[in-house]
């Protein structure tokens, strides 16, 4: 697999003294094993693995400090690694160095049900968190497709299906504990719900993809489990009609908890993979949270809206089992669609536009996809104006990769022309760096570079990510 | 008035060449008039005025660029000024220089009702905005006490009574246009609802109080005007009982739009100032937004909660006139309480704590206030764990200022001990600088200083604010 092409290797040497220092501290939690390195050199993106020189397994913030100090002393790159589920090449060791695996930092440190907050170590995953707090009657809503770690979700400013109602990681993180490039441990904020006390370091680290500091603890907001939940599926004659229904729902201020678009190809894949019997047309998957009366009121309103837009078969999933099965299927969409072409790898793109332009953006993108020489699927967190295209590619065909990259570039430029963003929730990683200047302008990008330079002057933290090399 | 004491003057010279450059560009929109300078050298804080050397009235982003360039060329301080309603000395020209008044930048630039966004110039005030968009059926919820400018509200990360439901400026700003200290114009984000594309410059400028760049345009989220609104007043036997009712309301997830605490002194002041007949006990002022059935459901739940906590007289304000009168009175609380002691100036403090500690924090603070030698009032956006104390001081009594500062320091330290913040919404300005190291730690403060140094290496943007001088 040759594409998307990586820049010629910029690997920096890792001096033996650095490895010795790490070995002294970490013992057998330092691994030079080829398969361990290979595993940590890739994510769910189509990029081929670029393994680090070694992998260190951290179990505490102190461990992270030790790893940062060893790398800082020798100018060695250090790449934070949570669950490896990122989609844009975030964790590839493009300049070599050490990968810092925080998945063993998996303790829930303190639950504060009265304040609706919880503090966890960075390696705790979203499913683990919700399992551990179930008895409190609270839940954490942010749900990217994978069972990602909270640290990784913070680092990529992740969101998911519930963001339309509950917001993204940006909105739901109260405070972070971060190890700086100098090996200092800071806490970015207190646990108060709001503050005007100084620069928003919390938000600066959220979405910084490990390039400004290593997140070791995360305090997030929790929500009372809704008294009532209902879900519904509605088929539509076209993607256009489905999107029009969503736009009207949002504009009327109906507080839907989730509204997901699946195109026909995705529905077909889910039926195959998750043994469902969904009618194979574009469909919207809704979820409503609230009091029993509130949920019924929302659902009635939405049902009327869908009918106006040609929606058919507004079908309820009332039983929790049915509902969970449906949403589990939605979360497995990525893996399900992979089965549409055995042996394929997916290029999964991600744009977000103002919702008034969503129908245009998807329609124009579909015109491109109709001409593609490989299978594609469209799914979307459409209530936020965010959608994804999965392109199922033959890993050995350079022609297909080139074609996919052309579609991706056209889709991103289309989103930017509509005042949208090149990534709604996946992050920049390696793959979206090429669009950052176009999205933000060179002067804003220069400010971002100044932040990076100020926080990490040796450029040891996940180097070669987010910020493209200056062109002027 | 001598206290709170200002550091010895650090005024920097303003070279004639700088004034000449400004005069050439701004003509009679450059003012050296003493009363204009005096007016721009103070805010609503108790600090005595520290006037700038000159005031420039900007009418466009280009004007702001010109002012920044003139100041940058001569190393002259430049202080952005919106409506002058800040409370912690934000706009005082403590190092001299030029004040940049943006109040004439008061145009609503584009309303996008389909996307629930609006873009305004920085000088547009919150009331003006809501007047201009009334016909769209949408509204902008953030409402600090004063009719502040959107630019100022962004710069101080303001919130207000609706934040418990709609969030703060942090949550509601989509994008900013900012003039950097180098005179470059950047836009911090696209108009998509969410993005993972790079460092969050938007949030970095929000709350930066004019020290990192000059905000010239603000794009904010709007909300559909709720179908139904109702308000209610409930008296309580004690502040403790009222706060306990609020905590339970929040913990149950009731989506109240507003819940304000007023102590007995404040209620008395409102009755006098706004000619109301509220019963003079601690009270909570609620507002509910939603569908007619949803509002009724919320109100019923809250009424039950208040009853459990000894609430009396759950009284409805059903008619919009009654409701608006009540909320107008609440917004005038600052001015109303000033009347409790004619000739007094108010020291208005602001802390925010995790809601589980709110009752403790207010109770311990009230013990201090009971011993104060001047009138005091407590009001709070208690749903957020945020409350204010107004201390009505004789401007000529140094003893009273010293006493007030002691109470303020004790209150802030109490909030910090409870994992709270030294300011929930007023900002740092001059008055809270002393607590920033305690709140964030020296290492986090060092990062903030690095951001300031990177963005404004000449230290011309509102110097002497937010960041205390390093102690090590």
Automatic annotation (TrEMBL), chains A, B:
Necessary cofactors: FAD
The alphabetical list of record keywords is: FAD, Flavoprotein, Oxidoreductase, Transit peptide
Keyword Lipoprotein applies: no
Q: Which GO terms describe its biological process?
A: lactate catabolic process
A GO molecular-function term, please?
FAD binding
What are the EC numbers? Answer: 1.1.2.4
Instruction: Please name the top-level EC class of this enzyme.
Output: oxidoreductase
Name of the featured protein:
D-lactate dehydrogenase (cytochrome)
């Amino acid at each position: 697999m040759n594409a998307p092409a990586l820049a010629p290797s910029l690997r920096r040497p890792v001096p033996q003294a650095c490895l010795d220092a790490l070995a002294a501290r970490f013992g057998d939690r330092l691994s030079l094993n080829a398969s361990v390195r290979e595993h940590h050199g890739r994510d769910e993106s189509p990029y081929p693995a670029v393994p680090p020189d070694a992998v260190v397994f951290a179990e505490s913030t102190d461990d992270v400090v030790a790893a940062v100090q060893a790398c800082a002393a020798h100018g060695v790159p250090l790449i934070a690694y949570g669950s490896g589920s990122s989609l844009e090449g975030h964790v590839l060791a493009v300049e070599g160095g050490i990968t810092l695996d925080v998945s063993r930092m998996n303790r829930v440190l303190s639950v504060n049900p009265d304040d609706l907050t919880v503090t966890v170590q960075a390696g705790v995953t979203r499913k683990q968190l919700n399992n551990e707090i179930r008895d409190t009657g609270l839940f954490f809503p942010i749900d990217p497709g994978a069972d990602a770690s909270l640290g990784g979700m913070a680092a990529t400013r992740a969101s998911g299906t519930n963001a339309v109602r509950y917001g993204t990681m940006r909105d739901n993180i109260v405070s972070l504990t971060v190890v700086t490039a100098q090996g200092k441990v800071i806490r970015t904020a207190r646990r108060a719900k709001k503050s005007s006390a100084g620069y928003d370091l919390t938000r600066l680290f959220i979405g910084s993809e490990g390039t400004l500091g290593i997140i070791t603890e995360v305090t997030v907001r929790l929500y009372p489990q809704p008294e009532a939940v209902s879900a519904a599926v509605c088929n539509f004659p076209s993607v256009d009609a489905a999107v029009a229904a969503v736009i009207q729902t949002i504009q009327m201020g109906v507080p839907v908890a989730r509204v997901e678009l699946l195109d026909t190809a995705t529905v077909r894949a889910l039926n195959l993979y998750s043994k469902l019997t969904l009618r194979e047309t574009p469909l919207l998957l809704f979820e409503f949270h609230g009091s029993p009366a509130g949920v019924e009121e929302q659902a009635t309103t939405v049902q009327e809206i869908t009918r106006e837009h040609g929606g058919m078969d507004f079908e309820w999933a009332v039983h929790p089992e049915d509902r969970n099965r449906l949403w589990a299927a939605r979360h497995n969409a990525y893996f399900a669609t992979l089965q549409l072409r055995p042996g394929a790898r997916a290029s999964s793109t991600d744009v977000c536009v103002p919702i008034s332009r969503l129908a245009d953006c998807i329609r124009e993108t579909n015109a491109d996809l109709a001409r593609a020489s490989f299978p594609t699927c469209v799914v979307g967190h459409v209530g936020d104006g965010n959608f994804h295209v999965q392109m199922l590619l033959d890993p050995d065909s350079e022609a297909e990769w080139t074609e996919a990259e052309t579609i991706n570039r056209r889709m991103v430029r289309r989103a930017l022309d509509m005042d949208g963003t090149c990534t709604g929730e996946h992050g920049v990683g390696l793959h979206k760096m090429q669009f950052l200047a176009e999205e933000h302008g060179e002067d804003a990008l220069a400010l971002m570079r100044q932040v990076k330079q100020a926080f990490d002057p040796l450029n040891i933290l996940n180097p070669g990510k987010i910020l493209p090399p200056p062109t002027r």
